[in-house]
Each structure stands twice: as C-alpha cells, then as structure tokens.
Amino acid sequence: MDARLKRGQKTKRKITETAIALFHERGFNNVTVDEIVTKTNTSKGAFYNHFASKHEVFAEQFKQIDQFYVDHLVPQLDAKKPVMDRLAQFLDLQMTYIQNEIGWDVTRTIYEQELSTERSSYFLNPDRPLYGILLDLCQEGIDNGEFKPGYTAHDIVTVLIHAMRGVLYNWSLNRGKISLKDEQRVLFGVVLEGLFRSEL
C-alpha cells in the first residue's frame, strides 16, 4: 500500500471516529460538517472525498459495527452449546454493545436516516456480516434438528431481524430510559421459544 493511500485511510478513519463521537455527544442533527472538519483539522474537500454526506459516516459505522460482531462477539460463543443458547448469548452481547457503546440517540438517528427514500438502506443489504452470522447459526440449528420443522434459515433470520428492529426502535422511542438488555431478553426469549422444538 502506497503512502498516499495510507494517508487517505488514516484521514477517513479520523473523520469517522470524530464524527461518531460528536454524534454521541451532541446528537446527529446538531453536528455540522464544518465542525467535524475543524475537530479533525482536515478540510471540506477531504471530508467530501470520503463521504457524500453526514449520513455516509453512518454507513461507515454500520460496517464497523458489523465487523465488531464478527471480530469480538462471535468468538465468545461456545460452539459446544446448542444454537438456541448461542443465539441468546449473541443477542445479549449485541444489545449490550449497542446500549453501552452506540447509545439511544445515535440509534434513533440511524433509523431516522435509513427511512430516507433518496438512497437504499444498509439495513436491507443482504451481504451484511450480521446476516451472515445469523444465517450460519440458524442453518446449523436446522441441520441439528433444533428448530420446529418447516422453517428455512432465511425465514428464521427474517423473524430475528424484524424483532431486532422492533426492540431497538422501541428503545429509541423511550429515549433510552428503559433497559435495552432487559427488553431484548423478554422479547427474544419469547421469539426463540416459539421457534425451537420443545421436545429436544
């Protein structure tokens, strides 16, 4: 990798980290590109060389969040445990991370921005690593006979993703005043119990 490309990646990472920190601190709508540029000691040209808008910074964060799941959450799952236990653990780790590290205001803003009709939503990107994690687990559960018959891995992941969006949206509506960890445990406890074969 040449020096120019390395500098570009370093600048992009710096802008992303600073922008996300500002969004956490003051809210997405209260942060301007000018402020991000000033804080990072870069230029508007540098910002727009990497991002078309503030929303594009969110897109970059999505990638980082999903990669965090791959690098840090999946390795914590015990492959010897049933898929139901691993799914429950993954969801608990995921929601704990979102509650403690992402925060309700950034989560709310993500949902707000993803509703825009001007661009496709990253939520619907079938190549998201999050979907890959869930599909692998659910297919393993099907192969092991842990799920009720009649469901495909895609069916189960769709249910989990819809429930995931629901609990995050509700948490955002409540402005983080309820425990995301507790809410997800109740919701996903019911969802997983409904999907798994009780006779196992």
UniProtKB/TrEMBL annotation:
DNA-binding region located at which positions?
32-51
This protein's record includes keyword Repressor? yes
Q: Where is the HTH tetR-type domain?
A: 9-69
Query: What InterPro entries is this protein classified in?
Result: Homeodomain-like_sf, HTH-type_Tx_Regulator, HTH_TetR, Tet_transcr_reg_TetR-rel_C_sf
Query: Which Pfam families does the entry mention?
Result: TetR_N
Keyword tags: DNA-binding, Repressor
Q: Kindly list the residue ranges recorded as spanning the membrane.
A: none
Record-level Gene Ontology MF annotations: DNA binding
Tell me yes or no: is DNA-binding among this UniProt entry's keywords: yes
Q: In its UniProt entry, what is this protein called?
A: Transcriptional regulator, TetR family
